[in-house]
Specification:
Blueprint: E1 2-3, E2 25-34, E3 38-40, E4 50-52, E5 57-65, H1 69-76, E6 83-85, E7 91-93, E8 105-111, E9 122-131, E10 137-140, E11 143-153, E12 167-170
Antiparallel strand pairs: 1-8, 2-5, 3-4, 5-11, 6-7, 8-9, 9-11, 9-12, 10-11
Length: about 170
């Protein structure tokens, strides 16, 4: 995650600067590009004669594990509200109230072997997104704390029309 407008790193470069890694994921990671079609018919045809896609969405879904207070606060959208006390005992606190307007982030999802052209890196880019998931922290007897997370793309008017909801960039050789 990074502030909206942060330059996207090259596909084969580890992000630096303002980019902050949320942490490790467990299980499947999903990229959803959705948008149902609306079909139109007329009196002269039994089948549809036109289709439009009135809405589109792009979402990244994953299970975040290895929770640190900062990563938890980013998902909670309360990173600016962490409080610490020297103690004793020393403490760190993240509030549960998330507020009315969510923080917008630039988000990337990258992997070192996600290219369809072979064992090459790929990067999914959401130039503008919010955390849209309900926060459910799951603990288990033999399981570390985890949060099912959804990042929901918002249109970014600073991008080319085709890239306003994001894009996939892969290394080919």
């Amino acid at each position: 995650m990074a502030p909206v407008g942060t330059a996207v790193p090259a596909v084969d470069t580890i992000p630096g600067g303002s980019w902050v890694e949320l942490g490790a994921t467990d299980g499947d990671q999903k990229v959803s590009v959705t948008g149902d079609l609306t079909f139109f018919r007329d009196n002269d045809h039994q089948g549809p004669v036109k289709a439009v896609r009135p809405e589109e969405d792009v979402m990244l879904n994953f299970t975040l594990v290895g929770l640190t207070m900062n990563n938890f606060a980013r998902i909670m959208d309360t990173i600016a509200d962490i409080t610490t006390a020297a103690g004793p005992p020393a403490t760190s606190q993240v509030p549960f109230k998330r507020g009315y307007i969510p923080t917008e982030y630039a988000c990337i999802f990258r992997g070192t072997a996600h290219s369809p052209f072979g064992n090459f890196p790929a990067i999914y880019v959401l130039p503008r997104a919010v955390v849209s998931s309900t926060i459910v922290i799951t603990y288990g007897k033999d399981k570390r704390g985890s949060i099912d997370t959804e990042l929901h793309a918002l249109e970014d008017d600073t991008q080319a029309d085709a890239n306003r909801l994001g894009w996939l960039n892969v290394q080919t050789a």
